[in-house]
Amino acid sequence: MDFVLLIHGDEMLWDAFSESERRRMAEAHRRFGREMVEAGVNVKYGAGLTRSREGRLVRPDGPAVQGPYAVGREQIGGIWIIDVASAEEAESWARKMPYAPGDIVEVRPCDPTA
Question: Does some domain include residue 114?
């Protein structure tokens, strides 16, 4: 079953990281991806995202609106899509993920009918 692991975090904290801290976090996520693959997880996709201010919300009945969008300070900063046997297994992998200060990870099943 496919699950998406959505990384929610405070972009202002990420922006305060030094370049070397950002590189270390990126490398930690690459290692995490390799760890999942080596454990037999079908990693379908993983990516960090640009800042929410670079995104746009598009609705069919109006102009596109530039981000950020969330009411609070947390934005989605990255995603992994993995194929594992259960929600519990997806949650287990989410707990092993590299976290920046204040990050939380949302684990959500993908809709196989969509």
Answer: no
C-alpha separations of 89 from 41, 74, 80, 92, 105 in Å: 10, 25, 14, 5, 14
**For the whole model, what pTM was predicted?**
0.85
Closest CA to 94 of 79, 113, 110: 79
Give the pLDDT score at 55.
85
- pLDDT tens column, 15-53: 899 999 999 999 999 999 999 999 999 999 999 998 888
**CATH code, domain carrying 101:** 3.30.70.1060
Strands (E), 1-114: 2-10, 42-48, 56-57, 65-66, 74-83, 104-109
